[in-house]
Write a structure and sequence with these properties.
about 260 residues, mainly beta, Porin, eight-stranded antiparallel β-barrel, 8 strands, about 45% strand, elongated
Amino acid sequence: MYKLRLKPNCKIFFVLVSYFLLFVSVSRAQNVKDSSLFFPMVKFSYAFQLPGGNLEKRFGYNSNVDLNFSIKTKKNLIFGASGSFFFGDQIKENGILDSLKTSTGFIINQNGNPATVRLFERGFTAALHIGKIFSVFSPNKNSGILAYAGPVFIRHKIKIDDIGNQSPQLVDSYRKGYDRLTAGFGAHEFIGYIYFSNKRMLNCFFGFEFTQAFTKSQRSYDYDLMKADTEKRTDLLYGIRVGWILPLYKRTPQQFYYQ
C-alpha cells in the first residue's frame, strides 16, 4: 500500500495551514459586542520614530516594525511581550571612517579603485508590558483608550556596507571597531486607541510610544577614536505606531433548545 511521504518543508507548511484553519474555525465565536472577553492576540505594527538624547547625535529618523503577543483579560488588563527591528539611513556620526580615507576623500579597495561604502542604522528591542484598556469612545467593552508600560532591552549599531566586499580595511573583524555597537536596558510606554470590530472584520490600534534606555558601548576599542568608548548614554525614541491585530477568540459551547 502506497504511503504519502511529506518532505520536512511540506510538513511545516501543512502544520501552519492546519493552525490557520483551526483559527478560522474558532474565531467565529465569542460575542465581542456585548461582553468584555478574555483572549490572546498577535499584533503586527509599524512606527515612524525620532531619536532623542545621545541617540540623536548618532542617527536621524527611523522606521520600526514590531511583532507583539498579548493577553487581554475580562477586566481589560493587557500584558505581553514584543520584539521590534528598527532601521534607517540617517547617519549623523558619519566621520567614523575618515581615518581610512585618502586625501581625496575615498576609501581605496583591493583593486586600487574608490570603494563604495554606505552607512545604515540597525537595531532591535525586546520588551515586556502591562497595561489597561479604558472603554471610552468605543463601540464595545473590548475597545477604547489603551495605555501600557514595561521594561525594554535595546541594541543598535551603525551597519557598514562595503559594496562588493572588496575593501580589506572593512572585513568583518575590522568593522567591529567602527560600528558603534551599543546596548542597554530601560523602559517604554504607549498610549493610544485599540479597536475590535463588533463583526470581527477589522481590529487595529494606533498611538504614541516612548522609549528611554540607559546604554553603553559593547566594543572594547574604537579604531577611529583610538580608545575605548566608556561614555554612559541615554538613548531616547519617540514615535507614532499603527498596527493590525489578530485576536485569537475561542469558540463558545453550542446551545440547543428543545420545546
